[in-house]
Design goal:
The chain has 22 helices and 21 strands. By secondary structure, the protein is an alpha/beta fold. A seven-stranded parallel β-sheet has the order 11-12-10-13-14-9-15, with helices on both faces. It has a six-stranded parallel β-sheet with strand order 16-21-20-17-19-18, sandwiched between helices. Helix 5 packs across helix 6. The longest helix is centred in the first third of the chain and has 32 residues. The chain is globular and about 90 Å long. The protein binds adenosine-5'-diphosphate and magnesium ion.
Length: 677
C-alpha cells in the first residue's frame, strides 16, 4: 500500500456514500492517517448501568431491549429505547432520527456515550458493536469527525488498515534535533493508543506540530517585515521638548517606557509593527500623540483610526486641543462628513496639507490618498478586522504602524494572532485612580444600582446604562435600549436628565448628546455598546450594565473602563437578567474579584474562545485541530522558540527539505493572512 493510494479502496470505505470522503478532506491513504480523532472512548471496561450517577457523562455498553417511535402533540417525534446490561437498564431517547428504529433492532449490541439525566440518556452518540471485535471494544478507541454516509466503525477499520499498510512510509518533516517522539509513532498512538500515557504523549507531539508550522509562518512574516525599508524618522532633544510641552501632564513610567520603545522603532529604517497594550484608562492616547508628533516633525502624515464615530470625534477634539496654537493641521473624516467638506479634505490630504488625519473606516476607502503617510495609529484594534488594517497600510510606502488595544490580549493570543508584532505594555495607571467597585446584582436587586446613579447625579457626577448587543446589527439592539430608556425615565431615573444613544441615533443627535453629557446637561446616558469604546468623560462615575450575562467579560471590562477615569471613586453594577444560569453568574463574579484586564481576557478566552476577546470572528487565527490555545500554552511557547531558532539558522528552510515542503503544503494560499503585520 502506498500513502498516495486512494482511500476509497480500503475495506469498509467502498460502500461509503460517494463524495462523503471528499467532504472529510480524505482523498488518499495519507489523508486517512492524518484524519485525527476528535476524542477517544475508553472501552477497556464498562461501568454497570446500575452504577451510573446523575449528571455524569458516561460510556455504556448494553443490548437494545426495546425501541419504538413516540409522537408528541407538537407533531414532533422521537425514538425511545431501553438499553440493558447484567446490572440493569436505562432509558434512551433520540430526537430527529426516526430511522434508528430500523438500524437498532431489539437485540443489537451498542455502545452509547452521553450525559445521564434523571435516569435517562438523551441524544447519545452510539455505535453498533459485535461481541468479539477487538478493534472497537476492549481498548481505547478513536472517535472521528464524521459526515453522512460513513460510519465510525467503517472509518476506524479503514484507518487501522491504512496504519498497518502505510504508516512506515510516513516521514517526519521535523528535524531530529528537536528531539520529539517520532511522528509515525505519535500518529499510531493518536489513533489507537495502548494506554492513556501514550495518548498524552502522542497528542503533545501533534499539538507541537500544529503550533510549530504556524509559528514558522509568524516568524517568517516577522523577518520579512524587518527586511523592508520604511521611513527612518529623525528625533532630537528639541523635538522631544516641543512634543512634551503639548502633553498636559507628566507621563507615567509605563507611558515613558512605551514611548521610548515606539520611538526606537520609528527611528529605525525598518517599519514599525508594534502593538501597544494597556488597560482602559491607562493613557494610550498620550503615547500615540507623542508618536504622531514625531512623525509630523519629520514632515510625514499620520492616520489615526478609531472604530466608532464617537471615538473618532473624541480623539479629534483631544488632539486639536493639545495642538492648539501650533501649526499642525488636524482634520476629521467620518461617514457623515458632508460631500463638499470631504472633497476638500481628500484634496488637502493628497497634497500634504493635512498632518494628522483622524477618522473611522471612512479612511480606508480607495479614493483616499496621502501625500506622505508616515505613521498609522489604529486605536482599539480589536474592533478592526485584520484585512482592514492591511488596507490602510497599503496607502503608505511602508508607514510605521502602531496598533493600540484596551482589551488586554492574553499571552497566548499575543503570540499567535499578533505573533508578528512587537509588544509594548502600559501596566500602570495615571496617578490618583481608584479601582472601580463592581457588584453583580440580580434583576430584583437592580434598584441598588439606580440609587447609586441618582446619588452620583446629586453630586454633579454622571452615569451610563448599557443594554446588550442582541445581534451584530446595531439596529436590532436598539430595541432593548429604547425600551429600557422609556422604563428608566419613567421609573428609577425619572427626576434626572436622561438621554438615549444607540446605533439608530442619527450622528448629529448622538454628538449633541455626548456634548451635553460631557458638559453635565445630561446626567445619564442610556445606550448600547456604541458607548463602549474609549468614551472619556472624567465625571462619569457609575455604570450599570443590564443583562450583563449577555456580554463577554472583556467587553464588560471595557465598559467598566468608561468610569473611574479621574480621582473620583467609581462603581459598576452588573445586573443579570431574569433567566441567568448559575454558571453565567459565576462567570460575572470574576468581574467583582479583579480589575486586571489580562486575567479577565484569559478567562474569556478559556470560556468563550478567541472571537470573544477580539469581538470579531475575523481574528485571522487558524482553526487548530488538536491544539487549544489556552490549555496548551506551554507547548505553544516551546514550538515558537524552536521555530524561531530554526529560522535563525536558515530562513529559507532549505536545510530541511521535508519541512520546507510540508510547510508550503500547509500554508499555500493562506499567507496573505500574515502579510499584514
Ligand atoms: P486609554 O488608554 O483608555 O485610551 P486615555 O488615553 O483615554 O486612556 O487616558 C485616560 C485618561 O487619563 C485621560 O483623561 C487622560 O487625559 C488621562 N491621562 C493619561 N495619562 C495621564 C498621566 N500620565 N497623568 C495624568 N492623567 C493622564
Ligand atoms: Mg483610548
Amino acid at each position: 500500500m502506498l500513502l498516495s493510494d486512494p482511500a476509497g479502496q480500503l475495506p469498509g470505505l467502498g460502500k461509503a456514500r460517494p463524495g462523503a470522503l471528499k467532504q472529510l478532506g480524505i482523498d488518499t491513504v495519507a489523508d486517512l492517517i492524518h484524519h485525527l480523532p476528535r476524542r477517544h472512548e475508553d472501552r477497556r471496561s464498562f461501568r454497570p448501568i446500575l452504577s451510573l450517577q446523575d449528571g455524569e457523562s458516561a460510556i455504556v455498553r448494553g443490548e437494545v431491549l426495546s425501541i419504538r417511535t413516540v409522537r408528541t402533540r407538537a407533531r414532533r417525534s422521537f425514538v425511545q429505547a431501553s438499553v440493558g446490561d447484567e446490572s440493569g437498564e436505562i432509558s434512551v431517547r433520540w430526537w430527529n432520527m426516526p430511522w434508528l428504529t430500523r438500524s437498532l433492532a431489539v437485540g443489537t449490541q451498542v455502545v452509547l456515550y452521553g450525559r445521564v439525566r434523571k435516569g435517562a440518556i438523551t441524544q447519545p452518540e452510539f455505535e453498533v458493536v459485535s461481541e468479539d471485535d477487538s478493534l472497537h471494544i476492549g481498548r481505547i478507541v478513536p472517535i472521528y469527525p464524521l459526515t453522512k454516509g460513513i460510519t465510525t466503525p467503517a472509518l476506524r477499520r479503514a484507518v487501522h488498515t491504512a496504519l498497518e499498510g502505510a504508516l512506515h512510509e510516513v516521514e517526519d518533516p521535523l528535524p531530529p534535533e528537536l528531539d520529539l517522539p517520532p511522528l509515525g509513532e505519535a500518529l499510531r498512538a493518536m489513533h489507537f493508543p495502548p494506554d492513556r500515557k501514550a495518548l498524552a504523549r502522542a497528542k503533545r507531539r501533534l499539538i507541537f506540530d500544529e503550533f510549530f508550522y504556524f509559528e514558522l509562518a509568524v516568524g517568517l512574516q516577522r523577518l520579512r517585515a524587518k527586511r523592508q525599508k520604511g521611513v527612518a524618522q529623525k528625533w532630537s532633544r528639541e523635538v522631544d521638548r516641543r512634543i512634551r510641552a503639548r502633553i498636559p501632564f507628566t507621563l507615567t513610567g509605563a507611558q515613558e517606557r512605551a514611548a521610548k520603545e515606539i520611538l526606537e522603532d520609528m527611528r529605525a529604517a525598518t517599519p514599525m509593527n508594534r502593538l501597544l497594550q494597556g488597560d482602559v484608562g491607562s493613557g494610550k492616547t498620550a503615547v500615540a500623540l507623542y508618536a504622531a508628533l514625531v512623525a509630523i516633525a519629520n514632515r510625514t502624515q499620520v492616520a489615526f483610526l478609531a472604530p466608532t464615530e464617537i471615538l473618532a470625534r473624541q480623539h479629534e477634539a483631544t488632539l486639536t486641543r493639545a495642538l492648539e496654537g501650533s501649526d499642525v493641521t488636524v482634520e476629521l473624516l467620518v461617514g457623515g462628513t458632508p460631500a463638499a467638506e470631504r472633497r476638500r479634505i481628500l484634496a488637502e490630504l493628497a497634497s500634504g496639507g493635512i498632518d494628522l488625519m483622524v477618522g473611522t473606516h471612512a479612511l480606508l476607502e480607495p479614493s483616499i490618498e496621502f501625500e506622505r503617510l508616515g505613521l498609522v495609529v489604529v486605536d482599539e484594534q480589536h474592533k478592526f478586522g485584520v484585512s482592514q488594517r492591511a488596507k490602510l497600510i497599503r496607502k503608505g510606502v511602508r508607514p510605521d504602524v502602531l496598533v493600540m488595544t484596551a482589551t488586554p490580549i492574553p499571552r497566548t493570543l499575543a503570540l499567535t494572532a499578533y505573533g508578528d508584532l512587537d509588544v509594548s505594555v502600559i501596566d500602570e495607571m495615571p496617578p490618583g485612580r481608584k479601582p472601580c467597585a463592581t457588584r453583580v446584582l440580580t434583576h430584583l436587586q437592580r434598584q441598588v444600582a439606580y440609587d447609586a446613579v441618582r446619588a452620583a447625579a446629586a453630586q454633579g457626577l454622571r452615569g451610563f446604562v448599557i443594554y446588550p448587543l442582541v445581534s451584530e446589527s446595531e439596529d436590532v439592539d436598539a430595541d432593548a435600549a429604547e425600551e429600557g430608556y422609556r422604563e428608566l425615565s419613567r421609573g428609577f431615573l425619572r427626576d434626572l436628565n436622561v438621554a438615549l444613544v444607540t446605533g439608530r441615533t442619527p450622528a448629529e443627535e448622538r454628538q449633541r448628546c455626548m456634548q451635553a453629557f460631557r458638559s453635565g446637561a445630561i446626567d445619564v446616558l442610556v445606550g448600547t455598546t456604541v458607548l463602549e469604546v474609549g468614551v472619556d468623560v472624567p465625571e462619569a462615575t457609575v455604570i450599570v450594565v443590564e443583562s450583563a450575562e449577555r456580554f463577554g467579560l472583556s467587553t464588560l471590562h471595557q465598559l467598566r473602563g468608561r468610569v473611574g477615569r479621574s480621582g473620583h471613586a467609581s462603581s459598576c453594577f452588573l445586573v443579570s437578567g431574569n433567566k441567568t444560569t448559575d454558571e453565567a453568574r459565576t462567570r460575572l463574579r470574576v468581574m467583582e474579584e479583579t480589575n486586571d484586564g489580562f486575567r479577565i481576557a484569559e478567562e474569556d478566552l478559556r470560556l468563550r474562545g478567541p472571537g470573544e476577546v477580539f469581538g470579531t470572528r475575523q481574528h485571522g487565527l487558524p482553526e487548530f485541530r488538536v491544539a487549544d490555545l489556552v490549555r496548551d500554552f506551554e507547548v505553544l511557547r516551546a514550538a515558537r522558540s524552536e521555530a524561531f531558532a530554526l529560522l535563525e539558522r536558515d530562513r529559507t528552510l532549505k536545510s530541511w527539505p521535508l519541512l520546507r515542503k510540508e510547510f508550503q503544503r500547509r500554508f499555500r494560499g493562506r499567507f496573505d493572512l500574515y502579510e499584514v503585520g
